[in-house]
Amino acid sequence: MTSADDDKLARLQLYADANEELSTCCRSECGYALSVARSQVTSHLRDKHNVADDLRRGLTKILNGYPYSFRNPADISLCDDGSPIHPKLRLYEGFACRKCKYCTISNSEFSRHAKTHLRGRHASRSQISDICNDVYLQTWTHGAARRYWIIEKDGSSSRPVAHQAAHDHLQSIYEREHKHLELQGREGFRSQDIGAPTLVASRPWMERTRWAITYDGIRRDVLLSLAAMPYGGDHLLGHGCSDGDPDLLSPREDEQKLVSLVAVVYRMMERCEETLQHTPQNYLCWLRSTKTKAYYPKPFSLVSLKASKKKYIRLFQRFVVFLFRAFRMPSSVRRRLTRIRFTKRQLEQLEAIWEHEALENTELARDSPSEPANFGRGMSNFKEPRQEDREKSFGSLFDGEDNVDCGSEDGGVVGEVDWDNDEDEDEDVNEGEDDKEAQDEEEYDEERDERVQTVVGADESPTGRASRTHLPAQYGV
Predict the structure, then answer these.
(1) Are residues 200 and 242 in the same domain?
(2) Which of 110, 153, 254, 427 is the most exposed place for a label (fewest CB within 10 A)?
């Protein structure tokens, strides 16, 4: 061995450990020993680090010329627990079992290991914490079969769990809560949550969905209230912007109609499920396929658990409630607080459903619970209506001449997407479409006001269509 050989190993960030007779890759993403058999060190530098041929040339000859033979890292015994840090090996944050010698850097792997000490039962967080130590680990090798030993760092074999990011997150929570309590103590406190930058909101998933940008400056309390399940009484959507402004309130009449609408949605989903059960399997395979010329080998199917079914139906019910509460708000208030806009066609369809006589039938929600907290659980207790009642009320929503046209004008299916251009369309904000939607809403409001004035001038009963069409005064701001 010459000094030139040592310099070559240093340039390639390789280290020859004379004590353990190992060749170690010291790069930050590696930090483990390599086997020198069959030019594996050269292959490692080429495949993993893209090292040029001229830099790797002669490396195998240099390693074979050492006064000792390099050993296979898999055959080296582990260091004792509590050993000092090996300067050339990578340091891992891991977990050690208190009941055995098992160590891992994967939280999910440790959860599976915990089952062995609980006779195969699923381990809860508290049970895992009882047998888990947070430690620093090192290993000779890499891959799924690697084994670890515990490192002593700064005089301790345990590692602190709280890092600077976690400390900053807790500090931000404390500061926001302190400000919240101060505001709550002031006279005329109003909740106007429009979102604040937090550690959670800056995670990769939130950045990918762009929710923080989409809902920036929007009243979060109003959005949550719009999606709350109805229970038949007056529903607060949000406080006024200042002490002198009235609160946003969904009136009792609207909420009672929403209760009936939610019941209709539940029965509609049951009807869809019944249709699915009588649909041929080859149709279901095509339904599940994402290709136009090939079907999926397995058919489309529903969730198997009843609890999952209830959750999905409840989610769709909340969406429908959100949609119609937003529809019933004055367009100017809706755009300013939530930025929700409807086209003229959408407004006409929403009104056609809202004014349908079937929703006036109180029998639809006869068996629904009155408390919002129990509403979702009570959906499973709805009684099946008699056939004649179904034909008179619920069925007419879908089968009569007054049904809402959900198809496209050319007879096609609404919702077809050009997937090739979808990403570009999402990124480009079309201000012209927003202006057109705002214009559509203004025209729709004017036409509706004219219809209301015409009906009122004809001395229609206050309980007739005019009173149902007119926007409730409680929605004012």
Answers:
(1) no
(2) 427
Two tokens, residue 359: 């929703």
Q: Integer distance in angstroms from the first to the last C-alpha of the chain?
A: 85
| Rounded Cα distance, 282 and 279, in Å | 9
R_g of the chain computed on alpha carbons: 33
User: In terms of domains, do 324 and 446 share one?
Assistant: yes
CA distances from 16 to 34, 37, 147 (A): 10, 15, 21
Q: Are residues 107 and 233 in the same domain?
A: no
86 DSSP 8-state letter: P
Q: Give the pLDDT confidence of 184-238 residue by residue, as tens digits.
A: 655 444 555 556 555 555 667 777 888 878 888 888 889 999 999 998 889 998 8
pLDDT-based confidence at 84, cuts 50/70/90?
Answer: very high
Supply the pTM of this predicted model. Answer: 0.46
Q: Where are the beta strands (DSSP E) in 80-205?
A: 92-97, 103-104, 132-138, 149-151
Do 364 and 393 contact (CB within 8 A), yes or no?
Answer: yes
Q: Please tell me the distance from the alpha carbon of residue 196 to that of residue 198, in angstroms, as a whole number.
A: 6
Quick one: tokens of 419? 């997937």
Tokens of 216: 């920036």
The reported pLDDT for the residue numbered 247 is 83
d(CA 247, CA 388): 42
Q: Does 325 share its domain with 196? A: no
Whether 159 maps to a domain, the answer reads no
Range of the domain at 111: 92-151
Structural domains counted in the chain? 4
Residue 82 located in a structural domain: no
Q: 107, 63 in Cβ contact below 8 A?
A: no
Side-chain half-sphere exposure of 26, counting CA atoms within 13 A = 14
Cβ-contact 199, 165 below 8 angstroms: yes
375 in any annotated domain: yes
Q: 130, 155 in Cβ contact below 8 A?
A: no
Are residue 146 and residue 171 in the same domain, yes or no?
no
Domain boundary among the residues 75, 104, 134 is at 75
DSSP state of 362: G
> Is 422 contained in some domain?
no
Shared domain check, 236 and 188: no
